[in-house]
Design brief:
single chain, alpha/beta, Rossmann fold, four-stranded parallel beta sheet, four-stranded mixed beta sheet, 11 helices, 35% helix, globular
């Protein structure tokens, strides 16, 4: 079977074994049928079917057996989210006691779940929405992962790392899947286009809270605010990383990172079928400085979503 272009370590690179997935999640059975190619599949325009499929994928990991969240929250595609985790593992190769800061973890808490399941990492996961954090905590409790995942709420819509980081925090990396759209209207327009392409069910399939979908100034504004704040806490994490959907945002991000004193900036490409995205990675510490970080501490990655104005960088 032809692979999907995912990371070589991604267990879903060769496609889906629906018989196994239905065993993992019996609720998936009613949505599985043979397609025109005489192979088992689901209707990907049906949000309920997509959610049950992703539950089946997630439950293939020994440590995860419960994953319940409201329909209004985005259902993350497990293979793509797992790819970010695997690429982060490559970036941190050789590290021990890895701790990740997940910025904007959302109700699904998906990156911490996958990081614990695949690599036994520890996480601090943040979000600005209390309801999302309550759901995420229920998921953590249901899977007995309290020892691995700590949740923190960001109370200030103008901040990403500020008021989240503590004096004794030391992370191996941060991670983030930033909001894509500039406004609710832009997100709704994209929803209408998707509805025309996939059918009426796409309205629910394109669900998501405001902080998950859009941010004042869009992805570019979020990334530059994140970059600026990372320069204020350069010793708190060995690497700062983020998904970047729009390729056009890379150049300005790299230029700003240099102005802010980053010692390294790199892009990790990710291919998921026909979709191409990337991870931006930057750091402010030299490798020698990394080696001198306190030993015995657990390092973490954080994911945050919030709405903030674009901060112009002029140095």
């Amino acid at each position: 079977m032809k692979d999907k272009g995912l990371h070589p370590k991604n267990k879903f690179n060769k496609g889906y074994n629906f018989d196994e997935l239905m065993t993992n999640n019996p609720a998936l059975k009613e949505f599985v049928a043979k397609n025109k190619f005489d192979t088992l599949s689901i209707d990907f325009s049906n949000p309920v079917a997509v959610k049950e499929l992703n539950k089946g994928l997630l439950f293939s990991f020994d440590k995860i057996s419960n994953w319940n969240f409201p329909d209004e929250n985005l259902c993350p595609p497990i293979p793509g989210r797992l790819d970010y985790i695997h690429h982060l593992a490559d970036l941190l190769s050789g590290e021990e006691d890895i701790k990740i800061l997940d910025i904007g973890t959302g109700a699904t808490c998906i990156y911490p779940l996958l990081g614990v399941a695949a690599y036994n990492w520890n996480f601090v996961a943040t979000d600005i929405d209390l309801d999302s954090l309550d759901v995420a905590q229920d998921i953590i409790d249901d899977n007995n992962l309290d020892a691995h995942i700590e949740l923190r709420q960001q109370f200030n819509e103008q901040q990403i790392l500020k008021e989240i980081l503590k004096d004794d925090d030391s992370f191996s990396a941060t991670m983030c899947n930033p909001p894509f759209y500039k406004s609710a209207e832009e997100a709704q327009g994209a929803n209408r286009r998707k509805t025309r392409n996939l059918g009426n069910n796409a309205v629910r399939n394109f669900s998501g809270n405001n902080n998950e979908l859009w941010y004042v100034g869009g992805e570019k504004a979020f990334l530059h605010n994140y970059l600026y704040e990372s320069s204020l806490f350069k010793e708190k994490s060995k690497w700062f990383t983020s998904l970047v959907s729009k390729k056009d945002n890379i150049d300005s991000l790299e230029k700003s990172s240099k102005k802010l004193g980053a010692t390294e900036f790199k892009i990790i490409p990710m291919h998921q079928g026909n979709k191409v995205t990337r991870i931006a990675c930057w750091r402010f510490l030299e490798k020698k400085a990394h080696l001198n970080l306190p030993k015995g501490k657990k390092y973490s990655c954080v994911i945050l979503f919030m709405i903030m104005p674009l901060r112009e960088i002029s140095l």
